[in-house]
Amino acid sequence: MTRHTILYFLLSIFSFHEINAQPLKYPNSRKSDQVDDYFSVKVADPYRWLEDDHSVETATWVKIQNDLTENYLKQIPFRDSLKAKMIRNWSFVNYTAPFRAGKSYFYYRSDVKNNQPVLYYMRTMEYVPIQYFDPNKLSEDGSTAISQTVPSNDGMHVAFVLSESGSDWNVIRIKETKTMKTLPETLTKIKFSGIAWWKDGFFYSRYDASSLSKAYTEKNEFHKIYYHKLGDSQDLDSLVFQDKEHPMRNFSASVSEDEKFLVISGTESTSGNNLYIQNLDKPTSKLIQVVKTFENDFDLIGNIGDELFFITNFNADKNKIIKINANSPQSNLWKDFIPEQNEILKGATFCWKSILVHYMKDASSKVYIYNYQGEKVYEIPFSGLGTVETLNGSPSDTNVFISYASFTSPSIVYRYNMNKNFLAILFKPVLPYNADQFETKQIFYTSKDGTRIPMFIVAKKGIKLDGKNPTLLFGYGGFNISKTPEFKPERLVFLEQGGVFAMPCLRGGGEYGTEWHEAGIKLKKQNVFDDFIAAAEYLIKEGYTNHEKLAISGRSNGGLLVGAVMTQRPDLFKVALPAVGVMDMLRFHKFTIGWAWKSDYGSSEDSTQFKAIYAYSPLHNIKNGVNYPATMVTTADHDDRVVPSHSFKFIATLQEHQQGNNPVLIRIDSNAGHGSGKPTGKLIDEQADIFSFLLYNLGMTL
After folding, report:
1. Structurally, how many domains does the chain consist of?
2. Got the DSSP string for 457-517?
3. Could you tell me if residue 389 is inside a domain?
4. Does the annotation mark 246 as catalytic?
5. Active site residue 657
6. Distance CA 515, CA 578 (A)
7. Which structural domain, as residue segments, surrounds residue 178?
8. Catalytic one among 205, 556, 599, 647?
9. Can you name the residues that pair with 289 across neighbouring β-strands?
10. Whole-prediction pTM value?
11. Angle between helices 79-89 and 680-697 in degrees, nearest 10
């Protein structure tokens, strides 16, 4: 060991000791005397003023908090080298599965040099791809992202849904496919909208105009569907559908590929929808309401003539495919096309004289081909534990494109030829690391009430179960969303340094159907937290780690998970990383689209649900004199999904009550939102800071 190496080692030890020797001096966040009454329970909310994200006082508080966090992070001796390793692991070219535009195709290509993926165009599969649209030129900092790209059915035009700074508020622009000319109109006020092409225009969804000062916090009400004709000003768009009696319903439009049927779906929450159908071939036809309630999901796949095919959980907890005849759509005449199976039906697409169906077994993907008689004829083989991220097919195309990812490899894009029954790799990233050094396995453990829970564990091959491995436990558990194998390049640094990554499939998710989802919502939400705590206890019991080497993380609803669990069992974890979390469970429904989450969470406006929510709400369960885990909360100033005041109020309260030396900090990103479309540069900066904090507080080095 050289003299310089010894000196660096000693300085590293000294720096670690210095940062953790005494508690940080946190900003003195002003407290008000705000108190609310919930069914005779008085609840203080002293940091209510932080809900005003446009105030000078909040902006000053944000700067002080960010400065504190930056001063802490810059003392971590390996922060720069960790970021360099992260950039290396991000340095591969990734591709999306091609999607059809008439007889041509588009796909996206991304790499570490660009903040946003670049769109490419292929006239046919035999032509050399050309660069079509580079969204990196739309903004200097790369914060303008394309959230949707939807070609017209004839391939003559393509519509782009653009998001600025990660906001859910979007604009729509249109280009001519062959000339690449951008049409003059810009559609605004767009939020939670698809694009459904019909004739010389498309259907889309929007809200009425909102003032800039309220756009990122106020409730989203009175969603409407319009039709836009190409070349027209948005002022001339035709109102197609609205519901004046129910302001808190969202609506989306779909059109069958042959452009014969318009299907409108309405939602009151994050699950369940009503349904309207209209025959567009008949000028005098009107929308017919086919489903009136919101008890089940109905997702259009496509049609064969007048038969419309839907994926639904109607009388099928694990989903099935049904046929609804547009001429006689009464529910007693619906027919099962592919009945409910033991596996969970996740998606389907029409392809050449067949239907390609995506199933999930124990949170890992399987793909089958069915004929038009509803008979399974073939399984497309994929090896290992992985996730089908995309299925792209068309009734008029013999090509099907499938992207498949795992925990340690980004998406491999396959091309399947329906005529030749042949599967071939179309795009495969060249990786800057050795993926073979890692292994993924799936185990099953028992939760508090005896429920059997699956969990994925990823680590280097041959890891010793000596109870000393740094471990990161990641979870979600909500909104019927399935947590399946997914590739995140930022995790590789942790794995390369001997870390263990674990992801349980918690109740509240969609891994095992409706019953699994409903076992983790409303009055049963505590089951989700119990499942996560049981996962941590399993990892300790089986010798993977110990509570001084165990970290937890989660995003959005997963941020709520981390906040709830770290306040219930602060003794169990060394590090907590709640990201863009729902922390104030008493007021979440008062902002933007939060009202739609009542289906999972319940509401503080109901006396029984209030008691359940109040018992686990992260903000309201921070206690004085407790040594909470080393915590870094992350959020962003343009997050209009889970507004940043959730994180602001949580960290202000945590800093007020924290006892002990573990740091409790917040990192607030600028010109960024809930996460979707975040520039690659910002992603790397954020993840480098998160993992520097993680490794440092778990006693790891590079």
Report:
1. 2
2. EEEETT---SS---EEEE----TT--------TTHHHHHHTT-EEEEE--TTSSTT-HHHH
3. no
4. no
5. no
6. 27
7. 143-214+221-255
8. 556
9. 276
10. 0.91
11. 130
